[in-house]
Every structure is written in C-alpha cells, then in structure tokens.
Amino acid sequence: MMKTQLLVVGGGPAGLCGAIEASRYGVETLIVDEGVELGGQLVKQTHKFFGHEGFFASVRGFEIARRLKNQLNHHVKVMLQTTVVGIYEDVVVLYNREKDRTFEVQADYILLATGASERFIQFENNHLPGVYGAGAVQTLMNQFMVLPGKRFLMVGSGNIGLIVSYQLLQAGAEVAAIVEIADRVGGYDVHLRKIKRFGVPVLLRHTIKKALGEEKVTGAVVVQVDEKFRPIGGTEREFAVDVICIAAGLTPSVELAAMANVKIEYVPELGGFVPYRDQNMRTNVENIFIAGDLAGIEEATTAMIEGRIAGLTIAQSVVGVDVSKEIEALQNELVEFRSGPFSEKVRKGLSRFFPQRTVEFSRQPQIDKGPVGKLRPIIECYENIPCNPCQTSCPAGAIEVPGNINSLPRIDYEKCTGCGICVSKCPGLAIFMVQENVEPGFDLVVIPYEMVPLPEKDERVIALDREGKEVCEAQVVKVLRFPDMTNLIYLKVPAGYSERVRNFRTLKRGNVLVCRCEEVTLEEVERAIELGFTDYEELRRYLRVGMGMCGGRTCRSTVLSILSQKLGKSPGELLKGRFRPPVMPVKFESILRGETNED
Amino acid sequence: MEHPILKAKTARTVKFYFEDKELEALEGETIAAALIANGIDVFGESEHGRPRGFFCAIGKCSSCLMVVDGEPNVRVCITLVKEGMRVQRQLGRSDVA
Hints:
Low-confidence stretches of chain B: none
CATH architecture of chain B: Roll
CATH architecture of the largest domain in chain A: 3-Layer(bba) Sandwich
Strand content of chain B: 25-35%
Oligomer: heterodimer
Helix content of chain A: 10-25%
Radius of gyration of chain B: 14 Å
Largest interface: A-B, 44 and 35 residues
CATH topology of chain B: Ubiquitin-like (UB roll)
Largest sheet of chain B: 5 strands, mixed
Distance between the termini of chain B: 40 Å
Number of helices of chain B: 1
Strand content of chain A: 25-35%
Structural class of chain A: alpha/beta
CATH topology of the largest domain in chain A: FAD/NAD(P)-binding domain
CATH superfamily of the largest domain in chain A: FAD/NAD(P)-binding domain
CATH class of chain B: Alpha Beta
C-alpha cells in the first residue's frame, strides 16, 4: 500500500499546476496519468496561447507543458500509463499498464483533474473508421506527427474545430470545409480569420448527414438545416474526404468524482454533468478537490489557475501555511479571465455554485488607421478576448490594452517604430503591417506566417485577401524569421492593395517536370529564365535540362517553347542549341569493341 | 513530414507485426499512431461486424481495442509500440483466451 499526502489524478495543465503549488510547500504528491507523457492535452497544442505573460501568453501549448514539468520538485512522484480505476472509502486503486498490475494508494487529499472527453454525434455511418474526434486528429498529427488522411471535413466551428483546421493546413492536409449547425461561428473571430484567408469554406447552418464508405470513410454528405436545426431536403452536398472530424464539444469526465461521493449537478453551460465545488475548488467532500475541464469545460489557462488554487488550498490544510493572499490573487485572475463575452456561459454556469463578479473593460476598437505612408501595424482584433501580448511585447510602448486584458488594443502610431514584434507575438495572428507607396506604384504588406515552405526573398507569389481569394501578384521583399516560428513575410503589392492583401500562396509547382531524365521542374526553368539564362545552351549548362539519357528529345522543344513565351519571341528566332553525338548513350566498352574487333 | 512548428521525430525505429505483416514504427509512438503512419486505420470489427476505427486517441473512448501479443482489449491509442510486438485486429469482443 502506497501512502501520499496528495494524489493528483491527471497530469494535464490543471493537475500539473495543482502539484506544482502543493509541492512548493512540501506536500508529498503523487501524479497519476493514463498517457505516455505528462502535459495532458497541452502536448498537442501547437498554437500560441492567449492571456497575459503571467500565464504563458504567446507561448505554444507543448512548450507550456515542458515548462510546467520543469517546475515539479522532489516532493512529486509521477506514475504514467496508469489509470485510477476506482476510488473507495479507504483506498484508491490504480492500474499500471506497463507492469500490468494494480496498486493501492491511501491519500490524505485528492485533486481530480481528469479532464473531459469528446462528444460523439449522431449521423448515418458514424461508426466508420475515419470518423475521429477533432482532438484525436490533433493528437495524431501534433503529438505523433502522423496524419490519418489527406482531405478532412470539420464538423463544428468552436475554437477546437477552428484551431484543428488551421493545424491541419500547417501539417499539409486539405480542409474541404467546416460545417456549423448554428447560424454563427462558435470560436474566436481571430481563429476563424486564420483559416478563412486560406480559402477554407465555412458553411453555417449546415450539418453532417451521413458518412460515405463501406470499410472506411470515403466521403461525407452535408445538409443545410432550418432554424430548428432540422435538415432541409434537397440541400444535400457530397464532399470527397477521407476523414470526418467531430468538434462538437467536450463532456467532463466525472466518473471518479461521482464514485468519491462528490455531488454531480447538471449544468449545461459547463458542459453537462459537473461536480460541485466552491471557489477554492473544494468539492462537498472535505478532502477532494477538482480543477480544469472536469470542473467545467473552459480552456487551459483557466485550468492552470484553478489547479494552482486547488494546490495552494491543499497546501494550506496539509502544511498549515497561510497562502490566502496568493489564492485571492489567483481568484481575481479568474475573474479577469472570465469577464469577457466569451465567458458569459461559464459565468452563468458557475453562478450555480457561487456568485460571479466581472471587471469592466473597453469595447472601443481602434479607429485611427495611422498615417498613410508610414510602416505601421493594423490590428484586426475586434472581440474582447482576454489577451495582451501585443501590449507587453511592444518595445516602444506604443500599444495599450487599457484597464485589463479583456479590452481591445489601441495603438499610438507616433510611438510605433514598425519593428513588427507585435505582428509575430499576437497569438491570434491578427496584426499586419502596411505601408503605402514604398516605391512608386507599390505598397507593402507584412503578414504573420506559420506555414511551410517559407517563400524566398524576391519570390513572386499570388496575394490573397481575407477570404483566401486571389487579388493580385506580389513579390516577397523580405522574410523576417522569429525563433518561435511565427515569421513575417514582407510583400510588395500594387498600390492600393495593402488594405486587401492578408495572405498569399506560392507559385511553387514542385511536381511539374519539364525534363524527365534530370527531373528539372517547370518552376526551375522559369526562374532561370527570369535570372537571365535566355538561351537553350545556357539553360542546359545551368540546370542540366536536356543532358540526361534521352539527349533532350523529350524536353528540348518544351524548353524552347517556354523560352518563346517568356521572351515573347517566336521559336524560329531562338537559338535551338547544338546537337552532339551520341544521339543515345553508347558504352565505352562497345566503342572499344568496335575499334579492336575489325571485321 | 515537414512542419512549420514541430521538429521531425528522430527516435530509433522498431519493428512490429500487424496481422503477420512486418511494419516499422518509431520508438515512443503509440501502437495507434504507428498503425496510422503505416496507412492502417481499420483496427477491428464490432460485435455486429461493423468496421471499427478509433475516436478519441487519448484512452477515453475504448474504440481502439486490439489484440496485442495475444491479449485482447488493449487500448492501442495509449499503449506504446515495442520491438517485435504482434498486433491483430480485434473481432467483436474477441474470443482469445
């Protein structure tokens, strides 16, 4: 029988933070987690978090997991690949998969941070392999770097649906569409904009009707719904996809709390059945605490704060230290994080347990677009989400998020130096820079970019607008790399386009070959011509086009016609290049045999 | 795969078997991830003969049950792949003793 002062069930953001705080005051802590590594769902979060510096704003989720793990001290023991299978009056039973055996633990205090599971929704053939929870796809692609398909349909437009869609694009997958049964997108506007500018269609008032396929998913039928969410006959559309991602929300994993006699209440705003708890995360059972998604579906930052409150409250009871000031400060943080419009539901749900407060913030957006002709940021952040890295990262102190982090940012263009740091730091990728008339007839647009491949300086690209539609050609004039992988691409666009251009796609056609033998691509030929190689012989020496086994019989005429188009000359005017023997390769051995065996 | 944020995994490769076919995996991968990497996404059949994939990938949904080294009902989404491991599709509730 093992004994511990604190048993933490679940090593995600809430559980880790609980363990960090309790162990900081010397509480002997055991963390038990089912997964193969600590960090819970943080390990698959590749996006930067919102919030403020105190809680890892603008840091990517997997990096937050790493930092939290480093904060655990010698009072903490960890058991991975271990499931808590039951909580009994006198003992907790664990099952470890590696050792294939159960263990018994006695704990003075238990912090349940079991998280949540993904909602499954009902449509025909929803059992088919290829129907995944959006989180499952995220685990596979971001934790293990494997993609379960090529073309995805996302069902649900909450933050998870939007974020996973964006991350699918980053992993090189195609997102056929996002369907949303409601008449508005559920997640943050900044997340929506990130995928819209890549042209991903978002179909409101649509839902999935059926998965197609016998053995696995080969497609999906999507249908429009009326105001009561009933399918409208005749509006069905088929999508050829091999994965259907369900992002229909999460349900708290309450099993262990329930068997430990914690009161479970139905609070739809918190995700359904949730355990009762007070402001200190203590349940109705004196020594059992909860935190994170189990206590109500929210997001990782509030989960971390709740975990800390629980850990400190437990430390207070075990060690007898007075940490009430710290706890109060964290409770105030929660109030601030939950004051915005997106937390209205959570506030309503939590008011069942204890009264909710909010802080005032500014809803006044920036109206001034700044002085024309100056290189300056344009902040396209129009929703009150709790976030302020634009302010804290600005070395010139030009950006202010007045009052508290829920306010909309304001920028003082007099102070701004156009350094671009805010553009790279903004977790919503919602800041761009523009400058009119950088040279006669051209404007500049600076775009935060998190895709591969990165374009090269001088590369020509197709500029896209906020909807992902092509608007004009553009030229990359600078690529500013940042260590946290949000790089800035400086695009020169025709005058007047800086207001519209918010993305681009490369012209790269890596797989379009001109020369089959030497595998020379169309893009390489065109680029070489632009660099000034304007006759066949030069191109041959530079690219090896036409120097392969076929002797140029397949590609010579193609290269000449590309030259003709690019230079505006008829093929007859071009030098067609030399023809040299051998017409086809002949072995030296054969030649020698011809020389020596005279017949 | 090339990725704008994540570095490619550099773990040692291990060999395992899926239905007698030898496959490669990276050490530290779950069995589920290794199978997906090898293009296998039908993990078994339900009791009523429906093809079964998995849904949550974090050990909660229990759709990923497979027979591993003769043992049925292994949640392959949270079980690490090991050298020489034998993984089979689970049919129904599995009759393997």
